[in-house]
Structure of Hexamerin A:
Amino acid sequence: MRSFVAITVLCLLACTASGYYMTKEVKYADKPFLVKQKAMLEIFQHVHQPELHTHLWEEQKSFDLATYKEHFTKPQVVEEFLRFYKYGMLPMEEIFSLYNEHHREQAVALFHLFYYAKDWESFYKTMVWARFHVNEGMFVYAVTVAVLHRKDMQGIVLPAPYEIYPYYFFNDVVISKAQRYKMQGFYRMKKADGVYSAYIPSNYTGYYVHSNPEQRVSYFMEDIGLNSYYYYFNADYPTWMGGKEYGLYKDRRGEFYLYQHQQFLARYYLERLSNDLGTIPTFSWYEPIVTGYYPYLRYYNGVPFPVRENYHNGYTEKHDVVEEITDYERRLMEAIDYGFIILPDGTYVNITTPTGVEYLGNLIQSNGDSVNKRFYGYLEKVAKFFLGGSFEMFNEFRAVPSVLEKYETAMRDPVFYQFFKRVIGFYHRYQDTLPSYKYDEINFPGVKLETIEMDKLVTYFDNFDADITNAVDVEVFDETTMKAGEMKKFGKMAHYQGEDFVLYARMPRLNHLPFSFKLNVVSEKPQKAVVLVFIGPKYDQFGNVYSVNANRENFFQLDHFLVDLVAGENAITRNSQDFSWFVKDRTTYFELYKQVMQAYNGDYKFPLDMSEAHCGFPARLMLPKGKKGGMPFQFFFMVVPYQAPEVERFTGYDNTLSCGVGSGARYIDSLPFGYPFNRKINEAAWFTPNMVYYDAMIFHKSETEVNSVVV
């Protein structure tokens, strides 16, 4: 009995330590790091106010970029940027759009300045100068991407996107209330610890306008954590970035792009089933788009996001765009069906092997590692322009992007999922050209998954507070007027009429109670193994049981972790709070800045870990809502042999600080994404001893019911 207990403990340690993004390791910031962290938080305060911090305004006056070339590892990037700057860049206060070619070129040139700055001092001086001289949206984007990709910025915590630009995440009702609170001089605001604060109720679009049935899942589509994740995903792997210099190809970026969007669809479908909506609708380029979307968002300069009415008929006005889209789609389908890609020089690349998916993903995304963007085109860019309901501008510097054309807002629109259902159709079409796994390819000889135990699964809505103080303009922060004690305590907070204040948006978000599962695994010998965990539907919208192959594209991956099996019985226990891939809610800007100031003054140890990593999926969205009386779902568990990746995991970066983007060492093993659901399933060779389908009910409760449960 003693040996069995020891085996269990060893296994638990292995399981816990193998998180994909979340780790249990914690480091603490030193003073040089805190200097950087403090500066990065302050630079994003009220980005549309040019003279907010008087000391920054004074610092940038003496900076001359043209004479600063020696402070960049590639001095030519200064000349590249200055050509744009002297010719005329996107003006301040204009709407920035990555889908506008001119905006994107300028943003990349600005990014190069930040990325190739030799050291922190050079980066900081360049950043402070740019804060006052380039378009605000372009500045935020370029700095964000640079921080995520510079090795000397690992561990730096950026404010959440929804706190930098609340306009993209909270509707006009909330933003207007926030501005009224400030203009009315703290009326009905409470003061605590020297700071006025107010909590503004926020809800989802479907609460105000039920324009179509899709609004039932607006709480999922408009979740600020989900949309932030998508924004960061596209900042980690920008379409314009590629080549050996950045190394994104090492992460199998093309395959990851396709799998990531397939997972979005699978997770969204589970939420649709919880709301009796069924499969994701399809559409035709030549027919009216049935599903409209009323975002109720506006840009900082007051321009509202474009609206797409129900039964939007874009073809009559943009038939030339439809021809371009269908050309791209036809070429992609021909590449899949023929089994090869045409290169610019007329030669071919074979994609009939399992690694061909990488080429296909790069082509579909039209990213910097695509082998032929000219021929296979820019499907996503052109399609989002057509579907979003936006219009072409006559002024090349002007843009009014739809929600689909902003990474911060794209997942709010139901048509996002309808479009990517079409795109992922190419992914499945390709997968269907590959042979099904044979029994010996998915079986794990000598290993059997005996039994599974799982806690009751309960979801609920709870309130979440986001700091939206950046939604209002504040008084210029003059450091010379603040007392030394106040400066040390609060740092540089939003200021009005001599008082500090913070505004919160309070919104209900889906969540779940923590749960655990226990696997009993028998192994004939000691060996390393990987445990895969997925959740999928049990029945379709009509109550029919899904067949195994038809259901494979509907499974959402929950976990993927390493274990050390011992000979005999292994009890593997895993808690949902330790699941790989998922991260907890972001700390609000106010709390984060306060912690940094306390640490900066020596009164607090500022922790550095991955518990809120930007590259992690929101943990609160792990489970679909389910139903009050319980809704059946099925989990899929599989224990597979460990296959070491080409580059040992965590090589080249500190996994307690960084997501390792571009390192080629992010992944625990070399399995294809989505394995074993990444190919057609032959049921005659499918069911092996190392896999189990497990039925479970998900109950949805009110927050009151959850809090009243006696533990």
